[in-house]
Automatic annotation (TrEMBL), chain A:
Protein keywords: Cytoplasm, Cytoplasmic vesicle, Golgi apparatus, GTP-binding, Hydrolase, Lipoprotein, Lysosome, Magnesium, Membrane, Metal-binding, Methylation, Nucleotide-binding, Prenylation
Catalytic activity, reaction form: GTP + H2O = GDP + phosphate + H(+)
InterPro entries given in the database record: P-loop_NTPase, Rab, Small_GTP-bd, Small_GTPase
Function statement: The small GTPases Rab are key regulators of intracellular membrane trafficking, from the formation of transport vesicles to their fusion with membranes. Rabs cycle between an inactive GDP-bound form and an active GTP-bound form that is able to recruit to membranes different sets of downstream effectors directly responsible for vesicle formation, movement, tethering and fusion. RAB30 is required for maintaining the structural integrity of the Golgi apparatus, possibly by mediating interactions with cytoplasmic scaffolding proteins.
Cofactor: Mg(2+)
SMART domains given in the database record: RAB, RAN, RAS, RHO
PROSITE patterns assigned: RAB (PS51419), RAS (PS51421), RHO (PS51420)
EC assignment: 3.6.5.2
This protein's name: Ras-related protein Rab-30
Domain of life: Eukaryota
TrEMBL record, chain B:
Family as reported in the entry's similarity comment: Belongs to the COG4 family.
Domain of life: Eukaryota
GO biological process: Golgi organization; protein transport; retrograde vesicle-mediated transport, Golgi to endoplasmic reticulum
Location in the cell: Golgi apparatus membrane
Protein name, entry field: Conserved oligomeric Golgi complex subunit 4
Membrane topology designation: Peripheral membrane protein
COG4 transport protein middle alpha-helical bundle domain: residues covered: 151-464
Keywords on record: Golgi apparatus, Membrane, Protein transport, Transport
Organism (species): Stichopus japonicus (Sea cucumber)
Gene Ontology annotations for the cellular component aspect, listed alphabetically: Golgi membrane; Golgi transport complex
Length: 197, 735
């Protein structure tokens, strides 16, 4: 039998080239892949993490950004527990596409979904086209959390996914509280460690 | 002598000796010294004879040594003579060698000159007689500087001629000439040029054939059997053409150009295939009004629920159906073609036996070509739109099935369940048949979404109003159906009840259907994976699992029936228990035995209630209902007991009532009932005790196999229902 308490689906979306595949590989495999081609359709990777003593399995779906794969990607929104909307801080164009993505999310995703805005390629901050403030205010206007990451330098990547895992775990526990024994809410994940896949 | 040094006697010191004692000492010393010296002399004399013997031997060998000396001198002069001689000879040999080399060179040159003469003659005659293969063959032979320019001229001349002739052959599509000149290029070292020119020829062939097919397609009679899939057919012919070209010409390329060149050829050919396929796709889009339909679907979907659109702005689902089938065919043919190309090129690469790195690079080039060629992109675009339209088609068909829902007399479920699952299966199967894992997954996801979303909602919405109260006349209910349809607005509770029960059954059957849908789709997926070298297996499995897990979201379907149809009706029946006195005399007890005041009636009422449902429910649903009813009966009856008082005979009577009830309920279901009555049975046991302390025979260590379901507090509470037990005794009990 599989050894985990909760399974959550996390779906990454955003324009092609913003670094979704790199973020997923960095988190699940701990590496920054050398020039791989653009993603075709969708793909997923698994990583099990420990959240407050419970094994939580994250199924991270990586999607293609191009328009022609949009309908494939959309079919995954409904069952997603969390959506990570990624832009590239060195690309105004990727940032300008965000409203379109948000609209899609609103249209297809379930209402309980958690969504996080991510500005990637933080290591290229010298070539930054989008300020932190711009990112923040965009996130705020769509009721999202916001985070800047670097898949290359591994900045904030674990934090991004672990925060999501903690929030989702707490949500499930809150539902369980109504019917079962009260479990303490996890406030941070200082104790949280990734563990083997 | 050692002593002498220590005492230092010499002649001077002897003379200075004055004391007698000293003189004696010196005398003794000198005597001792004399002895020692005498011994030494003896020893030396002993050696003398030995030495003399050796001396005489030496004297004897002197003349011998003189002979040796002269011999050695003679030998020295002989060696130097020999040396001079050898030096002399080897110089001559070296000269001879040089001379021999020169002679050989001279011979080679003569041969070359002869060759060249032959080649030049050959090239010229070959050129004259238009035997270009021969001419090119001659060119390889030539190598001497002197006449090199002659040959280079000839080569240039030949190359020019071959090019011209090849181009001319291309124009006239003279196949024989094309193939002839194609073979000459590698002889001239022009592999790439030859291959490129040749592929140009092949490309034009492919293009011509395809254009011909496409114009036939556009004029095809719409009544033709293949009309609905004519673009898929045209695309198939194109792929077969390219396939044939590869099949026929690969051996030729391999023979004359060597292995490992197929990738390059394919890269050039694919450019043509891309262009032609793109035209076919364009024609498909134009003639099937693909974009128009796609836009319409998008607009309809974006409006929110499809339910709001009026009939005339809807697309004709049948028309859509046909086009969707062709779409998946276009994709599956493309996948097949791309697999063929991959296999061919990989085989060709394998034959070369390059180092791994070079191979990996070439494979990467191949994969990139297959993934990103225009053909792939166009088809991916098509499939992207297909998914949206298939989803729409599926949703619309589901809505239609719901709206046409009907119930046949004697059937537990209504038509929409079968219809909807048929639609879901058909559409998702079609998506799987496209050969694209992502497309298959997308429709699996949409199926899951529909089932756990709209479908589940609409079923449960029918239960939300609850089970209508009042009696239930089955015949009446069926008569209210209008051609199997439930009256849309009716005050008739019978029809409403029938619809309610049907919905309950629909849900139960849906659970089974979900699992069998999952099973049959998973078989389809297995076939897809075999073609696909197992790539995408995890994705498909994940999506199939999600579909299977929908079952968990269909829960507690009978709860609303129970709470609205059973609970309120049970209440007055159970309440009648309260009106039966359980503090009774012997004669009353006998009277109860003869003419039961409560339980017979209660059982009869239950029987009637359950009978109402039995005919409308699937057997397993009916069992679930009995189980729910039993739960409710025991809960309510417990409360009634706690509100009554008993004496010993009353307790005995209650025990009898309980047994009748358990026997009845056990008889109507497959499931076990007794356990649900455990608490009540234990209450009856307590109410039957002779004395308060008798409870201790059953409690704690004495409980035996009995597991108490009552807490000590509850036990005391039940004991206190007995009017004949004193509360002090009960308080004093140690439980
Ligand atoms: N400097 C930098 N480059 C990145 C980072 N993440 C991704 N990239 C590069 O951006 C390009 C696109 O990345 P990819 O993950 O394929 O993007 P996707 O299309 O969103 O999946 C690749 O060349 C990556 O090497 C990052 O954090 N820093
Ligand atoms: Mg990617």
């Amino acid at each position: 039998m599989e050894d985990y308490k909760y399974l959550f689906k996390v779906v990454l979306i955003g324009n092609a080239g913003v670094g979704k595949t790199c973020l997923v590989r960095r988190f699940t495999q701990g590496l920054f892949p050398p020039g791989q081609g653009a993603t075709i359709g969708v793909d997923f990777m698994i990583k099990t993490v420990d959240i407050g003593g419970d094994k939580v399995k994250l199924q991270v779906w990586d999607t293609a950004g191009q328009e022609r794969f949009r309908s494939i990607t959309q079919s995954y929104y409904h069952s997603a527990d969390a959506l990570v909307l990624v832009y590239d801080i060195t690309s105004r164009e990727s940032f300008n596409s965000l409203p379109g993505w948000v609209k899609e999310v609103e249209q297809y995703a379930s209402r309980k979904i958690i969504s996080v805005l991510v500005g990637n390629k933080l290591d290229l901050h010298k070539e930054r086209e989008i300020t932190i403030e711009e990112g923040n205010s965009c996130a705020e206007s769509h009721n999202m959390r916001c985070l800047e990451t670097s898949a290359k330098d591994s900045d904030n990547v674990d934090r991004l996914f672990l925060d999501i895992a903690v929030e989702l775990t707490n949500n499930v526990r809150n539902v369980e509280i109504k019917s079962g024994p009260v479990e303490e809410e996890i406030r941070d994940h200082g104790s949280v460690q990734g563990c083997c896949r | 002598m050692a002593a002498a040094t220590s005492l230092n006697f010499d002649s001077n010191s002897l003379e200075r000796l004055t004391e007698m004692k000293d003189i004696h000492e010196a005398y003794e010393y000198l005597c001792k010294q004399e002895n020692t010296i005498a011994e030494e002399i003896d020893e030396l004399l002993e050696h003398q004879t030995n030495l003399e013997a050796k001396m005489s031997t030496l004297y004897r060998s002197v003349p011998n040594l003189q002979v040796v000396n002269s011999d050695a001198k003679q030998l020295g002069s002989m060696v130097s003579f020999t040396c001079d001689l050898a030096e002399n000879v080897s110089g001559k040999v070296r000269l001879l060698d040089l001379a021999k080399g020169r002679v050989q060179e001279a011979i080679q040159r003569v041969n070359d000159v002869l060759d060249l003469k032959f080649c030049t003659d050959g090239v010229q005659t070959a050129l004259q007689s238009e035997d270009y293969e021969k001419a090119a063959g001659h060119i390889i032979g030539g190598s001497v500087d002197v006449a090199l320019h002659v040959l280079q001229d000839a080569k240039q001349n030949l190359t020019k001629i071959v090019r011209e002739k090849f181009d001319a052959a291309l124009v006239t599509a003279d196949r024989a000439s094309v193939e002839r000149f194609f073979k000459i290029f590698p002889l001239l070292g022009l592999h790439d040029e030859g291959l490129r020119k040749f592929s140009k020829y092949l490309k034009s062939q492919i293009a011509d054939r395809c254009q011909e097919q496409l114009s036939q397609a556009s004029t095809l009679d719409s009544a033709d059997r293949r009309a609905a899939v004519v673009y898929a057919d045209t695309l198939t012919i194109l792929f077969e053409d390219v396939g044939k070209v590869v099949e026929i010409h690969q051996p030729l390329v391999e023979t004359y150009y060597g292995p490992g060149r197929l990738l390059q050829l394919i890269q050039w050919l694919q450019a043509e295939c891309d262009e032609q396929a793109s035209r076919i796709v364009d024609e498909f889009i134009r003639n099937r009004e693909f974009s128009l339909k796609s836009r319409q679907v998008q607009a309809l979907l974006h409006r929110g629920s499809g339910r709001t659109s009026t009939a005339h702005e809807r697309l004709d689902p049948r028309e859509l159906d046909v086009m969707l089938a062709e779409c998946t065919l276009l994709n599956s043919r493309t996948e097949l073609y791309l697999r063929f190309i991959r296999k061919r090129v990989l085989n060709d690469l394998e034959m070369v036996g390059n180092d791994e790195k070079a191979d990996a690079d070439k494979v990467a080039v191949l994969e990139k070509l297959l993934r990103e060629c225009l053909l792939s992109r166009r088809i991916q675009e098509l499939i992207g739109n297909y998914i949206v339209m298939e989803e729409y088609f599926m949703r619309e068909s589901v809505i239609k099935a719901e709206s046409m829902d009907s119930l046949e007399q004697g059937s537990h479920t209504s038509s929409m369940v079968d219809d909807i699952f048929f639609i879901l299966k058909k559409c998702t199967k079609r998506a799987i048949s496209s050969g694209s894992v992502d497309c298959a997954c997308a429709l699996l996801n949409h199926t899951t979404t529909i089932l756990e979303g709209d479908y589940q909602d609409s079923l449960y919405a029918k239960l939300r109003a609850g089970f209508p109260s009042g009696s239930f006349d089955v015949a009446q209910a069926y008569s209210m159906l209008q051609q199997g349809r439930f009256p849309t607005s009716s005050s008739d509770t019978n029809a409403a009840k029938l619809e309610f029960m049907t919905t309950v059954n629909n849900i139960e059957v849906s659970l089974e259907y979900i699992q069998s849908l999952r099973r049959s789709l998973s078989e389809e997926c297995a076939a897809l994976l075999i073609q696909n070298r197992e790539i995408g297996k995890d994705k498909l499995e994940s999506c199939l699992n999600d579909l299977g897990a929908v079952t968990h979201k269909f829960k507690d379907v009978l709860d609303p029936v129970e709470s609205s149809a059973v609970k309120p009706r049970l209440k007055p029946w159970v309440d009648s228990f309260l009106s039966v006195n359980h503090d009774i005399r012997e004669d009353e007890f006998s009277m109860y035995e003869a003419n039961d005041p409560f339980v017979q009636n209660f059982i009869m009422n239950l029987e009637q209630l359950l009978a109402e449902f039995k005919d409308f429910m699937t057997p397993s649903n009916y069992d679930s209902l009995v189980s729910l009813v039993t739960n409710e009966v025991t809960t309510q009856l417990e409360q009634a007991v706690l509100r009554s008082v008993f004496n010993r005979l009353g307790g005995l009577h209650f025990d009898k009532e309980l047994r009748s009830l358990v026997t009845y309920l056990t008889s109507v279901t497959q499931w076990t009932i007794r356990d649900k009555f455990a608490r009540l049975t234990q209450m009856a046991t307590i109410l039957n005790l002779e004395r308060v302390t008798e409870i201790l025979d059953y409690w704690g260590q004495n409980s035996g196999p009995l597991t108490w379901r009552l807490t000590p507090t509850e036990v005391r509470q039940v004991l206190s229902l007995r009017v004949d037990f004193r509360s002090e005794d009960i308080k004093r009990l140690k439980l």
